Amino acid sequence: MNTLVKEEKLLNYINGEWVAATKGKYVPVTNPANGEKLVDVPLSSHADVDKAVEVAKKAQKEWALVPAPQRAEMLYQVGYLMKERKEHLSRLLTMENGKVLEEARGEVQEGIDMAFYMAGEGRRLFGHTTPAELNDKFAMSVRAPVGVVGIITPWNFPIAIATWKSFPAIIAGNAVIWKPATETPMMAYELAKIFEEAGLPKGVLNVVFGSGSEVGDAMVEHSSIRVISFTGSNDVGRSVAGKCGQQLKKVSLEMGGKNAMIVMDDADLDLAVQGIVWSAFGTSGQRCTAGSRVIVHENIKQELEERILHEMDQITIGDGLDETIKMGPIINQSGLNKIQSYVEIGQDEGAKLLAGGYVLDEGDYANGNYFAPTLFTDVKPDMRIAQEEIFGPVLSLIPVSSFEEAIEVNNSVAYGLSSSIFTNDVNQVFKAQRDLDTGIVYVNAGTIGAEIHLPFGGTKGTGNGHRDSGQAALDVFTEWKAVYVDYSGKLQRAQIDVD
């Protein structure tokens, strides 16, 4: 076993204790770069979720009474510990997820930043004061914790997304039940250890490993979990939303994208190509914000194709622990199969395959899950490869003849997460940021690179209107409470006793 991995079998973290799952079933976690087994992760049951909720309910009542600035001190300590262990966490992340080391470091840094940002909210958590309409009466609104919240996180950002959800929930006075992805459980194990060391009271954070069909469903259906924050596929998100809706339970969904980069004929092509290649092939295309479409003005289409192909040839592929590697593996065989199927769909639809389109499975790639960077051109906006999320290193070039057409094509998909435009025309910049129907808009940059102090999420099939990250994340994990204090000494009736 790699010396970075200290455990052979992971345990659930419930009520501040490391405990075995009820059923005693495990599945192996493997490094997607080389097939090496890293650890066994338990497949927990409804009973394990019930145990976690029971202790979380009790812990939350006490945690909510801790002054928010004191809750913040614990979260600051989490940030310091993450910073201290950044390299260790980054290497473990690369091993279980496959992303290259510089990206793993960036993800861990995102968690560090979120710890310090949300700790700052411990001295804000702002409500509002407002004039009352009657004499000798005071009116205000305050944020109140919801109670026990459930977070369900994906494998592609196993620590960053968890911090987007758990940190605001905890600073707001809630207790958390966390189901991480079974493909990447080591980040959850490490973060739980950090919370433990930072002094978080027992039961405020609980980690229950297991499948979505068992642990995830148990969380969604549990009457005492009052919020579900989910990041994952559109199909699963719709199911989660339906079940939560039946219970009148708050639900926050972030479900992916089909993100486009518009390149106008006045764009800086050197800059555009850098942004395109980074957005499309960074993280092997396994980001919900990955750039999978390039909407290019027909006047520069050929030149842009040639430049992208040249840069694609420079991409080094392999084990992300090697600092010279720029693109790592696909998470698993299922992911490879999905990507390959979309390459075949694109060819059947009549798109022109310029590069890639195949699994890398020989030589150094034999034991890993690698797919060649892939570029299609002459893609029509209504083709499936231009409409559906592939979640791999596959890029489609769609030619257009005008700015207006580019905006229309961008907005023609079911998702609305991220978009970008490369242009030097200030008028087009302002029109684009107004008209692009996505939750995130970049100008003269690719579609990836969100910062933690701004809201993260999208429109349409990307989510249900809530946002991760930034101050907006607090809206998911708090309830607004209106408070009226009448110090007149007599009964005053709003709207009635007004002259």
Distance between the termini: 79 Å
* Main sheet record: 7 strands, mixed
Overall CATH class of the largest domain: Alpha Beta
- What overall geometry do the principal axes of the alpha carbons give? globular
> What portion of residues is helical?
25-40%
Instruction: Please give the domain count.
Output: 2
| Count of helix runs | 15
What is the gyration radius calculated from CA atoms? 24 Å
The percent range for strand residues is 15-25%
- The strands making up the biggest β-sheet line up spatially as 14-17-18-13-12-20-21
Please sum up the structure shown.
By secondary structure, the chain is an alpha/beta fold. Helices cover 37% and strands 22% of the residues. Strands 14-17-18-13-12-20-21 form a seven-stranded mixed sheet, with helices on both faces. Strands 9-8-7-10-11 form a five-stranded parallel sheet, with helices on both faces. The protein has a three-stranded antiparallel sheet with strand order 5-6-23.
Explain the layout of strands and helices.
Elements: E1 12-14, E2 17-19, E3 26-30, E4 37-42, H1 46-63, H2 68-84, H3 86-97, H4 101-120, E5 128-131, E6 137-145, E7 148-152, H5 160-171, E8 175-179, H6 186-198, E9 205-207, H7 212-221, E10 225-231, H8 234-246, E11 250-254, E12 259-263, H9 269-281, E13 291-297, H10 301-313, H11 333-349, E14 352-355, E15 359-360, E16 370-371, E17 374-377, H12 384-387, E18 394-400, H13 403-410, E19 415-416, E20 418-422, H14 426-435, E21 440-443, E22 459-460, H15 473-477, E23 478-486
